[in-house]
Amino acid sequence: MALPQLFEFHVRPRILYGPRSVREIGFEANKLGGTRAFIVTDKMLRQVGLAQRVADGLAGSGVTLVGIFDDVPPNSEVKVVEAGAAYAREAGCDLLIALGGGSVMDTAKGMNVLLSEGGSLLDYEGAGLLTRPLKPFIAIPTTAGTGSEVTIAAVIRDEAQGLKLEFNSPFMMPDVAILDPELTLSLPPGLTAATGMDALTHAIETLVSTGTQPLSDALAIGAIKLIAANLRQAVQHGDDLEARGAMLLASNMAGIAFSNAMLGIVHAMAHPCGGRYGVPHGVANSILLPYGMAYNLPTCAPRLAEVAAALGVETRGLDDETAALAGIAAVRQLAADCGLPARLSEVGVPHEGLAQLAADSQGDAMMMTNPNPAGEEDVLALYERAF
Ligand SMILES: [Fe+2]
Q: What is the pTM of this model?
């Protein structure tokens, strides 16, 4: 494959991996110059004691915990970010810690923009609007899927428009990402499956994106291998620390990859399902991924053949198209083995809503890097097939 003429690659967060690495949080916060830390999380994670583990890790470090905001819902919203930022500002925080899945980490990213720069969150929608570093920020993922701990992006729902908005800036990246697989042990099978399929979607969409580049490719292929080998185990035996650790790393690798090479039609179609009907992000991706791969196949069969091989499909002797089709079948099988739904009609999307979803997808930034251009009619046909 010819190398691109020009590309750039961001790798800002320092990544700390290991069981019980959350104990290092005080040391890390100190090193970043924080003195008054504020935790962003959700009620469930607080109830099961994970926020307490972070608080314990801060004890004795010289960094004071000044507040915990645990009002983050599964699909965060603009008003949640604004309420969290107001609380953190009142508490006088100078360092943010996100403890949770994608919604929590994206909420913390938005809060950091408001805490550091002021104004309203909607002022920062889009890309390139930030020009300087924000407050120190540590992310601790408790799901293995979003990769938000290493991405430049936050996706936050605007309840007024019923749309998911994207905020992109290298300055929104955390300074440190702590990957502690013990924190993912209590994640239930359904969430483990959905978030794992989100990570798989990141890796596959990155590999066929028009922004593809060698550094992100290597991470994406590595992530697919880890997911193929470990997702079923993590779903079926949630207490397997090895499988949990592998999935956390896969999510992280796929996150770095897509933050640099961007995504495509599957995410552009999944976002409206979340925005309009609250379909969990990973579930929407899992349902739509085989359809997006099939749509893109005419433009990137060799790449999808590589995906198939990374998924563990025996591709020797197969032409690229046949291998790619076997890869799509392997994706469907993985989702089914993990107990995920296969149709939009099973997850609360009404048939009469498909045309609006197709219209929404056209405004999604991820559509710009899809290898096979897709207009509203093309997308509607895919939604119909996935229904
Ligand atoms: Fe995603």
A: 0.94
